[in-house]
Write a structure and sequence with these properties.
alpha/beta, 43% helix, eight-stranded mixed beta sheet, single chain, binds pyridoxal-5'-phosphate, four-stranded antiparallel beta sheet, 409 residues, 13 helices
């Protein structure tokens, strides 16, 4: 229905909008539905008591500071802590390389603000994180996509995509959202070499790197880039902008994440952030610092790995038992998601409608594809549902899939 406001919006607003899938997903919020749709951490592992004690300590000991405006770069002790933690992975960054953001989602938006002119191409994996596409659509981005397999972006496809002159490369190397794929070490090195050769910067989005349930940690792209440049000094000045978040290790509701980048890029991001929100909540930063420092965060991440690792195994076993053989899926070594691939003759939006009627939900894969396609794919989250609900949900979804395969055949 047309309204008084329709012609008043900016052109970029026209690319925003509700989709049929989003409307369907609203239905999944009902408590009767077992949802594998959101990227939600398990609420039962939130460290509520530690947060409660930290809030009291912060207000009691530094109340005036916590309730005051703060620096746009972020709370200094938190930036120092992040620099120290990052150094453990073999890259000697300083707090001048770190900016705190209100979630990684804000970091994506700020990157769009400082880099994207209308019509610029952004190189993304196919499929990729939907939230990044949403952030950059507002700046008029176009996309060039690179196909993937279980080891991430394919190098040959990457090189031909680089020839189209993208503004930057967006990569999710660890347990990618949505597929769960991890970029192999060889491909990370190749990515760095190609990006350097073509003079294109890399945006590395890494919310899940610490949530590994099997296999060995692979060095981040930013660390490998620093090695590639043979920079033995303190501080990072290379070709990668790295981001990670406390959303999946502490709690998403505090909206706290960080960017690691060369100091000159941090300065530009700071200017952009001033226009967006002045700074991230001082109180939240101080509380998160109180909770995280002194070893708690490391211990907590061990707990999360154990809980999510068990849930992943349980889900994979249940899918083996209940899903029809016509459907295949990834077996991620970490993160929150796996990726289902149905026969071409099934459309995941239709499957979702039937699934919702059976009180179970997932996210259809098509919107994660910047160049279209993927209508037979689905993203399934394994961190949120409790084990008993997970089993019931996968059994229901398996039944829907078996029925729909049988009908189409
Ligand atoms: C790849 C990726 N980037 C960014 C985000 C946004 O995270 P945040 O809660 O820090 O804004 C998410 C959230 O699921 C994500 O999966």
């Amino acid at each position: 229905m047309e309204t008084l406001w329709d012609h008043r919006y900016a052109q970029r607003t026209q690319r925003m909008g509700s989709s049929a899938v989003r409307e369907l997903l609203k239905l999944t919020e009902s408590p009767d539905i077992i949802s594998f749709a959101g990227g939600l951490p398990a609420p039962d592992v939130f460290p509520v008591e530690e947060f409660s004690a930290a809030c009291e300590r912060v207000l009691h000991e530094q109340g005036a500071l916590a309730l005051q405006y703060g620096a746009t770069e972020g709370y200094r002790p938190l930036r120092e802590m992040i620099a120290r933690h990052t150094q453990r992975y073999g890259i000697n960054i300083t707090p001048e390389n770190v900016m705190i953001t209100s979630g990684s989602q804000q970091a994506l938006d700020l990157i769009g603000r400082i880099f994207i002119n209308r019509g610029d191409r952004v190189l993304v994996e196919e499929p990729t994180y939907l939230g990044a596409l949403q952030a950059w659509n507002a700046y008029g981005a176009e996309y060039v996509t690179v196909s993937m397999d279980e080891d991430g972006m394919k190098p040959d496809a990457l090189e031909s995509a680089l020839r189209s002159g993208p503004k930057f490369i967006y990569v999710l190397p660890n347990f990618q959202n949505p597929t769960g794929a991890t970029l192999s070490l060889e491909r990370r090195i190749k990515l760095i070499e190609l990006a350097d050769r073509y003079g294109v910067p890399i945006i590395e989005d890494d919310p899940y790197g610490q949530l590994r349930y099997e296999g060995e940690h692979i060095k981040s792209v930013v660390t490998l880039d620093n090695e590639f440049r043979q920079n033995g000094e303190a501080g990072y000045r290379g070709n990668v902008i790295y981001m990670s978040t406390f959303s999946k290790t502490l709690a998403p509701g505090i909206r706290l994440a960080w960017v690691v980048a060369p100091p000159e890029v941090i300065r530009k991001l700071v200017q952009a952030k001033q226009g967006a929100d002045l700074h991230t909540s001082t109180f939240n930063q101080m509380v998160a610092y109180e909770v995280a420092h002194g070893g708690f965060l490391d211990r907590h991440i061990w707990l999360i790995r154990r809980v999510y690792g068990e849930r992943r195994n349980l889900m994979l076993d249940a899918m083996d038992e209940f899903f029809p053989k016509e459907v295949s899926w990834t077996r991620p070594k970490g993160g929150l998601f796996l990726w289902g691939m149905m026969p071409e003759y099934l459309n995941s939006a239709d499957v979702l409608k039937r699934a919702i009627a059976q009180n179970v939900a997932f996210v259809p894969g098509a919107p994660f594809h910047a160049s279209g396609g993927g209508t037979n794919t689905m993203r399934i989250n394994f961190s949120f549902a409790t084990p008993d609900k997970m089993l019931i949900g996968i059994e229901r979804l398996g039944k829907v899939l078996r029925e729909m395969v049988a009908e189409k055949r």
